[in-house]
Specification:
Layout lengths: L5 E5 L5 E5 L2 E5 L5 E5 L3 E7 L3 E2 L1 H9 L3 E5 L5 E5 L7 H9 L4 H29 L3 H23 L3 H17 L25 H23 L18 H8 L2 H14 L8 E3 L5 E3 L1 H16 L1 E4 L4 E4 L3 H14 L12
Parallel strand pairs: 1-5, 2-6, 5-7
Antiparallel strand pairs: 2-3, 3-4, 7-8, 9-10, 11-12
Helix pairs in contact: 3-4, 3-5, 3-8, 4-5, 6-7, 6-8, 6-9, 6-10, 8-9
Cofactor: Mg(2+); Mn(2+)
GO molecular function: DNA binding; DNA endonuclease activity; hydrolase activity; metal ion binding
Keywords: Antiviral defense, DNA-binding, Endonuclease, Hydrolase, Magnesium, Manganese, Metal-binding, Nuclease
């Protein structure tokens, strides 16, 4: 049996977190108090103005739990964690891959193939389910463009070439994204992907979900002893979690895009769940963020079949399974990296 440890998300402005024996004590400004056993948690994510006591930080660091701080809009600010652990020989193999072009290309090609196939799967499913002929045309056209991209990807032998194919595929995918919205279309229109800042409600939801997914991918990478900053698709840059971003690519449409569409189409979030900022920026408000986080955590508890393991695993464990498959490839225990494909 697989056990999925929970991540605690704290979003209420002014909440104080402190250590109370073996529990986290959460105290809101209105006096409400809640205790959560530490052994139930794999990490804590603080969104907005949250106060964390030093004893709780040290306890989490000692026991391998991370505390991540995000801005109210979901942007990453800082992460508190204990000493680096893991297999130094595995990290050595990871660093050596920086000088192995063929192995890098093979890995990146597999990751992007997984991403494009998962995006295409979402488009095709939406095309089958829609009752609007115009939407079906848009969705199938985008899906066909991704099918062509997959053929070009098979022949790509340079990472920059693969990045170009990925970029064009994402552009085609997001141009058709609004056709997957079945309700509230006046409020939810998307003209391509935009961020820093997001300029419409759909991009606001996606950016927030991508931040949550990034947190999980980084934790998965670290759990197997890899360095999350040394990636191959995303260029190396101080402070950038390049490998976590790499492994996140194939999971974006599965974890974030599908959930965003579900929340909108089921009207679990609506126009009142957003706020405007100077310069045209649109972000989820506190109510909207709570709704998205609850749905995200619930989604992670669902079980589905993993084709490589040939057994059911919790949805939230998929980044951890993929991180282990990635580690096997880097060590040379596997001939190829197999991306996760959603069925």
């Amino acid at each position: 049996m697989s056990v999925l440890l929970n991540t605690l998300y704290v979003m209420t402005h002014g909440t104080r977190l402190r250590l109370d024996h073996e529990t986290v004590c959460m105290e809101a400004e209105n006096g409400n108090k809640q205790l959560i056993p530490l052994h139930h948690l794999s990490g804590i994510v603080c969104i907005g103005n949250i106060i964390v006591s030093p004893p709780l930080m040290m306890k989490c660091a000692d026991e391998g739990r991370s505390i991540t701080f995000l801005e109210t809009n979901g942007a990453f600010k800082a992460r508190v964690e204990g000493p680096v652990s893991g297999n130094v020989l595995l990290r050595q193999a990871q660093y050596q891959m920086l000088g192995q072009k063929e192995k890098q290309v093979e890995l990146v090609r597999a990751m992007i193939a997984g991403k494009i196939q998962n995006m295409r799967s979402l488009l095709m499913r939406a095309a089958r389910e829609t009752s609007h002929e115009d939407d079906e045309t848009v969705l199938r056209k985008a899906a066909n463009a991704l099918a062509i991209a997959l053929k070009h990807l098979q022949m790509a032998d340079d990472i920059n070439q693969i990045r170009g194919i990925e970029g064009e595929s994402s552009k085609n995918y997001f141009q058709a994204f609004s056709a997957m919205i079945r309700v509230q279309r006046d409020s939810f229109q998307m003209n391509g992907r935009n961020r820093r800042p997001p300029l419409d409600p759909i991009n606001a939801v996606l950016s927030f979900l991508y931040t949550l997914l990034m947190h999980d991918c980084k934790g998965a990478i670290e759990s197997v002893g890899l360095d999350p900053q040394v990636g191959f698709l995303h260029t190396l840059r101080p402070g950038r979690q390049s490998l976590a971003l790499d492994i996140m690519e194939e999971l974006r449409s599965i974890f974030a895009d599908r959930l965003a569409l579900t929340l909108i189409n089921r009207q679990q979030i609506g126009p009142n769940d957003f706020e405007s900022r100077p310069g045209g920026a649109i972000y989820l408000n506190e109510k909207g963020k709570k709704e998205v986080v609850i749905a995200y955590q619930k989604r992670k508890q669902d079980e589905l079949l993993h084709p490589v393991l040939n057994r059911k695993v919790a949805f939230g464990l998929i980044p951890f399974v993929q991180a282990r498959l990635l580690a096997r490839y880097m060590r040379g225990d596997a001939d190829s990296y197999i991306p996760y494909l959603y069925k």
